Amino acid sequence: MRNHDAHLEGPDLAALAGLLADGTRASFCLALLDGRAWTATELARHAGVAASTATEHLNLLVGGGLLAQERQGRHRYVRLADPETAQLIETLASMAPRRVNPPRSLPAVNRSRALARARTCYDHLAGALGVAITEAMTDRGLLDWEQGLTLTGNGIAWLAGLGIALPPATRRPPVRACLDWTERRPHLAGAVGAALCRHAFDSGWITRIGTGRAVALTEIGRRTLQDHLGLSDETGTPVS
Amino acid sequence: MRNHDAHLEGPDLAALAGLLADGTRASFCLALLDGRAWTATELARHAGVAASTATEHLNLLVGGGLLAQERQGRHRYVRLADPETAQLIETLASMAPRRVNPPRSLPAVNRSRALARARTCYDHLAGALGVAITEAMTDRGLLDWEQGLTLTGNGIAWLAGLGIALPPATRRPPVRACLDWTERRPHLAGAVGAALCRHAFDSGWITRIGTGRAVALTEIGRRTLQDHLGLSDETGTPVS
DNA sequence: AAGACACTTCGGCCCTCACCGAAGGATCGC
DNA sequence: GCGATCCTTCGGTGAGGGCCGAAGTGTCTT
């Protein structure tokens, strides 16, 4: 009945890893970690390669199942295939030894500050804001870390009070810890993390800054988080 | 105070992925997933490459932090560096599209049957036995999958009854689901999974078959699992 | 219809890297 | 000490793959 003959060999694993073993392709995937769809040209410019080179890489990534694509007119939109893929890249990124690259220009410094303050991580919230929300939820007994991360009964009720329904059970874990690159502490991911992030956008708590993955807390969001989580406002002063 | 300037670039991620992007190195890592230490020659023979080639690959893997090594006389013992690394390889392996390789010879069939029945997966139990234990623990209310995988109070008591103390809290999650390659269903991993596996070896419930990662259930183990989990004996008939 | 734009295909360049065999330590057993 | 075993270093070879620019296809705008 079950397929016991499916044998995983070294080359199989190597083929998958090989997709991420190129600087340009890895750069694509890191950019796509913001959870949005990018066009081929945007990615090419982002990585600093010719359009033709980007095409070849995208063909490999899509063919390998890491990326999903949608054609719209003359545009080729591409995004991470699924949450599992996003988690794989996160995991890899969190284990990769990072070079210390002091930001060069003043705009670069501002950009990196904005990213550290609040950003999307695939489909959930990260940065100081994401971590602060996660820790406040823990302090209020909405999350429990004792034996693995879980959403408590109070947590379910709290979500309901915000108008967020529990996501249906799938293979994706409802709550999951995702190590924050800048904070070095975990923030909330998983289906519930995604639902919370979606709700934050829909309700105008947060809004995108420019075209990147950085987000800013709005005045509404600041007040809502203070009311519902007791978050002090130092976490998310709106940025220009 | 915190290092906000550490920027992860594409090449950083690519360098890590590149370590696993070679068939031979991937084969090494899959072999090391049994959680034990292998010598360089064993790995070379396993992967079918010259000893000199194996040396080069091991240098890369150790240098990249994926493997830890210990020199003992003329032997170079090598093992996975830590549970995080093991989980990374598991994740990669579970996402890699696998070729269907019908086992060729009769001994190969027996080996693959033994592996499907019971084996180690890094430091915990996998195969039909690992999945059966996990599902029995779930049925008896020792594990809860509702909002992420957790060990229940009953589960803690059950472990204590077996003489297994709760592992101290570290960065490693106490319980974690690990997708079983052969069963396509999750089995118990994490610190508790590791403690249970260690206890199973120490108490003689299971024993290694030959030199691979396959294990066999002993008569003691069969009886203990029946008494404590109600496991029927079809799961683990001892193999020659 | 014409031009601009987004993407793809192709050919060619060059560099990286996996591999081996031969030779040279290093360690163990006798 | 003397082979046998385990590992390492080094040079050479060959294949693979990342890159670009030029030319071609399809799509949108004017």
UniProtKB/TrEMBL annotation, chains A, B:
The keyword DNA-binding applies. Residues 5-100 form the HTH arsR-type domain. Transmembrane segments: none annotated. InterPro entries: HTH_ArsR_DNA-bd_dom (IPR001845), HTH_Metal-responsive_Reg (IPR052543), WH-like_DNA-bd_sf (IPR036388), WH_DNA-bd_sf (IPR036390). Signal peptide: none annotated. One of its GO terms (molecular function) is DNA binding. Keywords: DNA-binding. The keyword Ligase does not apply. This is DNA-binding transcriptional ArsR family regulator.
